[in-house]
Design goal:
By secondary structure, the protein is of the alpha/beta class. The chain is built from 13 helices and 13 strands.
């Protein structure tokens, strides 16, 4: 019995994250090698951009959507206040691209606690086309982005198309740690989920949806009280019986210089949102993390040589897997340059995973909320949302 604990058990403990990494490589190879698209299917698209404040290189980010190799598209920007600094950026964009159909909606009407979704509700009446694409304000895309996204809609059963995201240029260690999370955690997790159970959620950086499908699930109003509106949008469409597709084309997250505390606060908000949205799957994800399994292997082996060999095997596999993702699949080239940060990233992932179970409060854009079962949020503080603040949605144009 003592022999097993000291020599065999450590390797059994690290087996889940060890094999998970290898399985994720197999899944990614299958996905990226199977790339096909119908570039001839080019329906008109309305791009909805909910905006609050300015991001790093906002003008260039917005301009990338104006320079699409697509015959017909519209961009609708939505802000809540005429004093928002993004208004000046958008007005400059309209001046530079007079031939692009761009609308600016300034509307402060509130429908629920997710103010990003409130912006989408206010922008929706201006949408002219039946393919609606929602994208975050800090995202930049290649000229072929719309063509790639639209290709999946050639299948009439596809209700939503979402995109993976990466960050190839980082400023500072906190930004590098967050960017490593994209290529070393998010993308592998999506690859495994896609292979084992199919896509049942969306990624908020880029989500394209059919208008009729959106209306069938209740429109944007169905999302207005959820923190993880991207996850909910994809999951609602999946449960309505439609296919969800993952685009082969990455979009670029343009991250500004960030403090470590700010990055950690955002990570905790994301992890708590996921815990409340999909509690069973999120709890199980802890068994695929490297740090807790490595610590358990050392503890149960009594910090013997076998325990350290098991941890070393796990660390080598983790490093190789992450480098392959970074260099060949995600192509952000963060690794091996930032390989020294990978153990730190894995430790922070374990910390934020743990902290997600230690509370139900999150802070988002200067407001504090409480997460409810299922992922809905309730605002904390003196000013609370009242139903009479909800005004009727304008009719479709």
């Amino acid at each position: 019995m003592s022999f097993m604990f000291q020599h065999i058990l450590p390797f059994l403990i690290v087996a889940p994250p060890f094999f998970y990494g290898l399985i994720s490589l197999y899944c990614a190879r299958g996905f990226f090698s199977g790339r096909t698209s119908d570039a001839s299917f080019l329906p008109p698209v309305t791009i909805l951009k909910p905006v609050k404040g300015v991001d790093r290189e906002s003008f260039a980010n917005f301009a990338s959507f104006c320079e699409q190799d697509h015959p017909r598209f519209q961009i609708v920007f939505a802000v809540a206040s005429p004093r928002d600094p993004a208004v000046a950026v958008i007005e400059s964009l309209i001046s530079k691209y007079p031939d692009v159909d761009i609308e600016l909606v300034v509307d402060d009407r509130v429908y629920g606690y997710n103010y990003k979704v409130c912006n989408l509700i206010n922008a929706f009446p201006e949408a002219k086309h039946d393919i609606l694409l929602i994208s975050d304000s800090d995202i930049r895309v290649d000229p072929g982005y719309l063509r790639e996204v639209c290709a999946s809609f050639a299948d009439p059963l596809v209700g939503l198309v979402t995109s993976l995201y990466r960050c190839r240029q980082t400023r500072g260690v906190p930004a590098a740690l967050e960017a490593l999370g994209f290529s070393a955690e998010m993308v592998p997790n999506v690859m495994v989920a896609l292979k084992l159970e199919g896509l049942s959620f969306a990624l908020g950086a880029s989500m394209a949806v059919r208008r009729e499908v959106l209306e069938k699930i209740g429109g944007f109003r169905a999302l207005v009280d959820y923190l993880a509106d991207d996850y909910q949008l994809g999951n609602m469409i999946f449960r309505a019986g439609y296919k969800l597709k993952l685009s082969f084309l990455f979009v670029e997250s343009v991250m500004k210089r960030e403090s470590l505390s700010g990055m950690l606060a955002r990570q905790v908000r994301w992890t708590r949102a996921m815990r409340f949205s999909r509690p069973v799957g999120y709890f199980a994800s802890g068994f695929t993390q490297q740090v807790p399994m490595a610590l358990l292997a050392l503890f149960f082996s009594g910090f013997s040589a076998s325990g350290w060999w098991a941890v070393l095997a796990l660390a080598l596999t983790r490093s190789i897997t992450a480098c392959i993702y970074s260099r060949f699949f995600v192509r952000d080239n963060l690794l091996p340059r930032y390989l020294w940060l990978l153990p730190v990233r894995d430790f922070l992932a374990f910390v934020t995973w743990t902290f997600s179970f230690l509370g139900d409060r999150v802070e988002w854009r200067g407001n504090r909320f409480r997460l409810m079962p299922g992922g809905k949020i309730v605002k904390l503080g003196k000013e609370r949302f009242q139903p009479d603040m909800c005004l009727p949605q304008l009719p479709r144009r």
